[in-house]
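ok trying this again, last paste got cut off
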Amino acid sequence: MIIREARPADAPQIAPLMNLIYDEMELTDLEDVPGPDLLKVITAAYRTRTYLSGAATTVVAEADGQVVGVAFGYPGERQDIVDDVITRLTAQSEAFDEPLESEPETAAGEWYLDSLAVDPAQQGKGIGRQLLRALPVYARRDRQSVIGLIVDFENPGAMRLYERMGYEVVGTQVVGDHDYYHMQLEIGKPISIAN
């Protein structure tokens, strides 16, 4: 298993994994969007510099040349920049009645783990745990000392994983029609980057 930053060529393998999250969220804005059209938009997003190594970072778990897991995150103050990618791509797609607008999920002062997904056929093999262990490097690189995330009240398996990895509940919030726990992990001082 290799944990590494994603490349544009990974986008077609990342998209179906991220689509699992969209399915779980049951967003009403996506009810009438055909699956292939949504996958096309997600794939395009994960080919952008913004998603791969710009405002956000995408990290993949690769096994036997295949992407089997993905983590996507960014400093909270960059959420508008990151969300603008999907808004712009959905505005350009005829499959969307109107551009997809995201709700606020994070805040300044934390590196926000927006998404974590593992191929269902590969779950239970520690892939999610390995991705979570890799994230402090990227958070510190972005000069953050806290990683934050939200987890659905109805996803106790994910909640247990995050708790085992040291995340603690710091609040709750509503996104779409779902209630989420807001969890954080203190990771210490950001690395300093020499000029």
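PB: full thing came through this time. The chain has one domain: 2-186.
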